[in-house]
Amino acid sequence: MTEKKEYLIVGAGLSGICMAIHLIKNNHSITLIDSGENFSTAVAAGQINPLVFRRMTKSWRVDDYLPYAEKFYTDLEIDTELPIYFPIQIRRMFSSAHEKVMWIEKQNREGFSDYLETITSEDDEYDLAQNDFGSGRIKKSSYVNAVNFVEGGKNWIKNRATILTEKLDYSLIEPSSASYKGKKYDFILFCEGSHNSDNPWFNQFIVEHTKGEVLTLKSDEISEHESLNRKCFLLPIGNKLFRLGATYVWNTPDRTLTQDAKDDLLDKVKLLTKKSFEVVDHQVGIRPTTPDRRPIIGKHPTFKNLLLFNGLGTKGYLMAPLLAKEFVDYLDFDKELDKEVRIERFIK
Ligand SMILES: Cc1cc2nc3c(=O)[nH]c(=O)nc-3n(C[C@H](O)[C@H](O)[C@H](O)COP(=O)(O)OP(=O)(O)OC[C@H]3O[C@@H](n4cnc5c(N)ncnc54)[C@H](O)[C@@H]3O)c2cc1C
Fold first, then answer.
1. Could you give phi then psi for residue 284, rounded to 5 degrees?
2. Closest-CA residue to 286 (of 305, 312, 307)
3. For residue 66, how far is its CA from the centre of ligand 1 (angstroms)?
4. Cα of 285 from ligand 1 centre, angstroms
5. Rounded (to 5) percent helix, strand, coil in the chain
6. How do the domains of the chain map onto residue ranges?
7. How much of the chain, in percent, has pLDDT values that exceed 70?
8. What is the pLDDT of residues 224-283, one digit of tens each?
9. Residue 228 and residue 217: Cα distance in Å, rounded?
10. 85-87 and 57-58: which strand pairing?
11. pLDDT tens profile 135-187
């Protein structure tokens, strides 16, 4: 049993919820504070794709992250009795003959064959979507229902710890004693996502703002069988609803919904389907990203009781459960953190 420590966690998005759950499981006492405004975790499509299609590479450390994430979300689903984790096949509609050649070249290669189905004649002739160059299917893909994850995660934590709905006032933190409003903690852990720029101790560690817009469509005609992907994704989420996304605008904290983004997505979806639908929702969010596309995790260089877990980027739902476990193991048992996520890489 580890020595019980008292943590104040700032932010109840994906990073704060995963950290709180792991810390509670390791017997620590948690106060989780969240402003109640979430622009990333709750907006996300929550897709877990083992591949990066653009480069036809495996997602970073997917062999470690994927089985752990699957178990983490399934356990949370069982504990909270909320539907959270949905395995669903992703079908990549190829953009060119070259892309198909790349797939064939990789489909039997060690490491890739766990995630790529071998292309069949049915994939070549698939007619439930626009099919210009054939298609390929991904194994072990899924999505997390983001709204249920946030609700379930918070409920799980509420039954075992304190959750405060308020905005943390940084001026009331005394960093050398890790106290807030005069109350001393062993650690203050910042999981603020893109709000990191307001943080006086960690805002020099670059968390970039990557704006994303996503539409929700309703259609009686589009197949709900698979998630389709080509230049955009079209993810069925039940009840004839689909998430269509997402746009990327780098380095902007702006959260206005734009007609340009909507038009862009509606243009791209034509590459997947000509079936009819109506747009029933349009949302915007900000992904917390970093210049080297790796999360940023660790202790403040001076105030060692101030901690950071941020920069989850575009693949947060895949990485967060195991990364949180690894950070807790680092804090409790001094286990090494993956060097690619350590905060030290940004300290000159
Ligand atoms: C449009 C879009 C689509 C996405 N799709 C996917 C996807 O399909 N798959 C995937 O894996 N990832 C996806 N992502 C990325 C994913 O959402 C992020 O990686 C992840 O949610 C980031 O979580 P976070 O906890 O770091 O930040 P956030 O979710 O932003 O949480 C931070 C929390 O901190 C709180 N906070 C901040 N400052 C304070 C303060 N001073 N006081 C109190 N509370 C504070 C905020 O209220 C917020 O709730 C998408 C993101 C967007 C925007």
1. -135, 150
2. 312
3. 19
4. 8
5. 30, 25, 40
6. 6-43+147-207+292-346, 89-140, 208-289
7. 100
8. 999 999 999 999 999 999 999 999 999 888 999 999 999 999 999 999 999 999 999 999
9. 14
10. unpaired
11. 999 999 999 999 999 999 999 999 999 999 999 999 999 999 999 999 999 99
**Cβ contact 234:93 at 8 Å:** no
- Give the closest residue (by CA) to ligand 1 atom 41: 168
The pick from 287, 308, 310, 319 for probing ligand 1's pocket by mutation, whose C-beta has the most ligand atoms within 8 angstroms, reads 287
Residue range 206-213: mean pLDDT, rounded: 89
β-sheet bridge partners, residue 320:
none
Ligand 1 atom 21 nearest Cα: 41
Superfamily the domain 208-289 falls into? D-Amino Acid Oxidase, subunit A, domain 2 (3.30.9.10)
**Is residue 340 predicted with pLDDT exceeding 70?**
yes
The rounded distance, in Å, linking the Cα atoms of 328 and 318 is 17
Assigned CATH class of 6-43+147-207+292-346: alpha beta
The pair of structure tokens assigned to 267 is: 């243009």
Rounded CA separation 229/232 (Å):
6
